[in-house]
Design a protein that fits this description.
- By secondary structure, the chain is of the alpha+beta class.
- The chain is 18% helix and 26% strand.
Length: 405
């Protein structure tokens, strides 16, 4: 496999909900007229707390500074894994767990904080620009690495990154992060770019006018009635949308494209407090156990928390016991504590995106309440940023939003 360092230099920021009125015009330009601002990497995610925006430097110029905007102090580079020399196509991605062992876990071990952005088409790993020498040294043994410059892919070697290479920091003791599971279901979709104008009115209404008061997070990692979450990405001409099933009903079904099975996803929300950008290892601790049992995962990092979407398969098989054993092993080893990903259910034979579904497994609670362990941020880390922790390969978190297939 090849690892491509894309040309995009990305800024990550948070917009306060009360200040959205100030940014409506530039956001509409980024959503529907990217050619006017030459923005090629744009992602907008609405959560109960705020709006998280990831966009390249051309797009960042469109947003005026204000008291409503918090910007992470780092510039992020975008990594993309390419198989057989082919860039991602318009077909649905298989999930970030496929690169958990080759990318996410090694970066976590070398204390590289990452952000994850999974789209309908592919998965992006965002790393701080200053961490690039460590990233190249860490992954050069597993990948042929290329850096895109002026539309061309130029090979990169460890020698090219020797200047500025720093020895990785020693790992610190782990931290427990609570997990909550809202009751609403989500779908992962795309639309053809030429049909985007046909849903423009609905998009504007959903993003800017259909607001409900934020709900207070429930204590103890209990289920929430529902959560506000809407993600729109327009990256190099490809569109990806994540919305809940009720919101989907407002759009014309013949224009929304999804997998043939049309599965709906449950969300897992990670973190009782803002996670920050310096903590490493959360994504790896989520992705690796899932990869071990062939469960794919989609991640979407936001400014404050991580989110996971889980989709149950339609048929049963003997894999349920394997999944349960793997979950117990992960909990016993300290990777997950406690792991109550329930109900733990069998998956269809040969279904690469199967997720536990079926009768509950002994020892696992029906409440989808997980506590993922990750390394702690330094005192006060992330607080001035609105607090976004990093998962292993994510901004330290390795990924905010996780969608499990």
């Amino acid at each position: 496999m090849d690892l491509h360092i894309l040309e995009h230099r990305v800024r990550v920021l948070s917009l306060a909900r009360r200040g959205l009125w100030l940014y409506t015009h530039p956001l509409l330009k980024l959503l529907f007229l990217p050619q006017r601002c030459r923005c090629k990497f744009f992602s907008l995610t609405e959560t109960p707390e705020d709006y998280t925006i990831m966009l390249d430097e051309e797009g960042f110029k469109e947003l005026p500074p204000s008291e409503f905007m918090q910007v992470a102090d780092s510039t992020w580079l975008v990594l993309s894994v390419v198989s057989n020399g082919r860039a991602p196509s318009g077909c649905q991605a298989t999930g970030v767990t496929k690169i958990a062992r080759s990318v996410i876990a090694p970066l976590a071990e070398h204390h590289v904080s990452v952000l994850m952005l999974s789209t309908y088409q592919t998965d992006f790993v965002l790393v701080r620009e200053r961490d690039l020498p460590v990233v190249i040294h860490t992954l050069a043994g597993e990948f042929d690495i290329y850096k895109e410059e002026n539309g061309e892919s130029i090979p990169v070697t460890c020698d090219d990154a020797s200047n500025g290479f720093l020895k990785p920091k020693a790992a610190t003791s782990p931290t427990l992060h609570p997990v909550q599971s809202p009751q609403n279901r989500f779908c992962i979709l795309t639309v053809a770019p030429d049909t985007l104008p046909a849903i423009a009115t609905m998009l504007i209404d959903v993003l800017f006018y259909s607001h409900s008061p934020p709900k207070e997070p429930s204590a103890g990692g209990q289920d929430l009635d529902s959560i506000t979450f809407f993600a729109f990405s327009l990256i190099e001409g490809y569109i990806s949308i994540v919305m809940d099933a009720e919101t989907q009903k407002r759009f014309p079904s013949d224009l929304l494209l999804t997998s043939s099975s049309g599965e709906l996803w449950r969300m897992v929300r990670i973190g009782g407090q803002p996670l920050g950008f310096d903590e490493c290892g959360i994504v790896a601790q989520i992705a690796e156990p899932l990869a071990a049992v062939d469960i794919s995962a989609y991640y979407i990092s936001t400014f404050n928390f991580d989110h996971a979407l889980v989709s149950p398969p339609r048929r049963a098989s003997s894999r349920s016991s394997s999944c349960c054993r793997s979950a117990r092993r992960a909990a016993d080893s300290g990777q997950l504590s406690p792991c109550r990903l329930s109900p733990c259910r069998p998956v269809a034979p040969g279904d690469p995106r199967g997720v536990p579904t079926g009768s509950s497994c002994p020892g696992l609670s029906p409440a989808l309440s997980l506590f993922f362990i990750s390394k702690p941020s330094p005192p006060g880390a992330g607080q001035s940023l609105g607090g976004a922790a990093s998962l292993p390969a994510r901004r330290g978190r390795g990924g905010d939003a996780v969608a499990l297939l």
